Amino acid sequence: MLTQSEKAEVIKRYASNPKDTGAAVVQIALLSKRIENIAPHLKANKKDYSSGRGLLKLVGQRRSLIRYLKRTDPVAAKKLLTDLDLK
């Protein structure tokens, strides 16, 4: 679960202006942060299937946003992926 301060920090870092929370870059960064928070829980609780399914949904959502960003703005996509350390 992301706290408000963590979410605000991610938005401040990746948004072009403070109200630009719907941009694909910001959404990808927020999803990545949520995925990073859920992954250790699943390593400790291997049989938590509902959280595992939620994680897979988040990963799929992030993947589709990355595909969209690569199609519309490849330069920003490459910069974001290297910044977040993703493929």
Brief synopsis:
The chain has a single domain, classed as Helix Hairpins (Orthogonal Bundle), CATH 1.10.287.10. Helices cover 77% and strands 0% of the residues.
Descriptive labels:
87 residues; mainly alpha; Helix Hairpins; 4 helices
Note down, in words, how this protein is organized.
There is one protein chain. The protein is mostly helical and 87 residues long. It has one domain (4-84): Helix Hairpins (Orthogonal Bundle), CATH 1.10.287. The chain contains four helices and no strands. The chain has helices at 4-14, 24-44, 49-72, 74-84. Helix 1 (4-14) crosses helix 2 (24-44), helix 2 (24-44) runs antiparallel to helix 3 and helix 3 (49-72) runs antiparallel to helix 4 (74-84). 13% of the residues are buried. The mean pLDDT is 95.
What order do the helices and strands come in, and which of them pair?
Elements: H1 4-14, H2 24-44, H3 49-72, H4 74-84
